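Journal club prep — side note

Before the paper discussion, L.F. wants everyone to see what a predicted structure for a comparable chain looks like in token form. Sequence:
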Amino acid sequence: MPPFLRYLVPLFLAAAAAAATSATATFVLEEATIESIHRAFADGELTSRGLVELYLHRIESLDPTLHAVVELDADGALAAADRADAALLLGSAALPPLHGIPVLIKDNIAAAGGLNATAGSLALVGSRPARDAGVVERLRSAGAVILGTASLSEWCNFRAPGVPAGWSPRGGQGLNPYVPSATTCSSSSGSAIAAAANMVAVTIGTETDGSIMCPSSFNSVVGIKPTVGLTSRAGVIIISPRMDTVGPICRTVSDAVNVLEAIVGYDPRDAEATRMASQYIPEGGYRQFLNIDGLRGKRIGILRKDFFRFPQGSIQEKVFGKHFDTMSQLGAILVDNLEIPSMKVINDAVQSGERALMLAEFKLSLNSYLSELATTPVRSLSEIIDFNNKHPVEERTAEFGQSYLVQSEATNGIGPTEERAITKLNKLCNEGLENIVQVNRLDAIVAPGASAHSLLAIGGYPAVTVPAGYTSDGVPFAICFGGLKGSEPKLIEISYSFEQATKVRRPPPVLQRCAI
């Protein structure tokens, strides 16, 4: 912020507060989008401070039940909102694309200031990063207000097998806002829950293998899993540099694309991956591909075997049949009954080599992250394991154990075992998705929910997950469009056109009557 603006901020606070007071009477928080928020800003119906206060109140009302939020930085968020309001009142001609928009980031993403980044572990409480993660730097540059951190499966679901999705010692058990007994699914659960329950319009998740796609599916929100390297992993607790990516989880494709455009790009702290992926960023950005006619002419491969496993006559079978009819009517060319022969191996992390590589990469990545923290109670994976042994704060931590952490600690870098795993994964990619896309000249593949998560994970491929329907019990399910590296423009066109034609998403019914 320019120095002169610091002195002008106090002069605008009274006006901003007055506008915020009237906001609750005219602004509709339910299903608010970036566009509707910015329109309310421009019309004087809402301020960023007023919006932050609305979301804080909503979180206070809902989170004791849903456990979507780990930590809030209310003071920091309100100060950032005041600066955004002051800039708006100054009449700046070129406000950034996420100006004044509150954002929740997953609890494995570092934000300098008042927030921890703990990956759900009590061992990292009290840690402080020396600087923002790369994606947080870009969010702030785009005008976003960092509101707090979203809950997750501890260590991004890499503590031990059998740990419930959405659970961590620090955040508790996240609940699905549609059907509390249903799964929240995988590690970016809090981000998906918060977006679904209208606790915030924009959240950020991370994915190794399914952690954006699956919670987006089960919580009826849109998730974009970008090509690995399109977004920086600097300052993020990750499992695998080969597979991990950072992406938006929002309620609409348009919002998710706006956020994606803000966070992509080269980062010298994640130089190799972001340099390679920067070649895929289109001139003019991603918003140009929000094309309502985006399905026309697209060749989309339907992966039937190993993916569409619904009982005959089920709601899912009927819904997907209708969706395919809709896509055809909108000009898509559907190539049906495609099969990837190696899917059983790809879906088995041990057979594919994925598990062996993840175990080695996790230790290397985590120790590197810890070494860069300004302050932290632990400096290595070994110390985290010791902490957990000494502090079994809940019976369930002892029940689940920490076998993945222990196995990871026993690794010693990228050796012959890991090299063989890399070779096998590369072969599975070449003979799997790469082959089926090239032979059939596909623009994208389509699969239900997160069923293609491992297929897309092992090669660092992108995906967009869009709400597709609800079971008879009210549990959401999604449709997923995936493609080769750098295919985000086509995936955005396809998913936006599909979303606008179907408009499936609805807010959680039990929350629609919740006062804000």
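L.F.'s comment for the group: Confidence is low (pLDDT under 50) at residues 1-24. Keep this in mind when we get to the figures.
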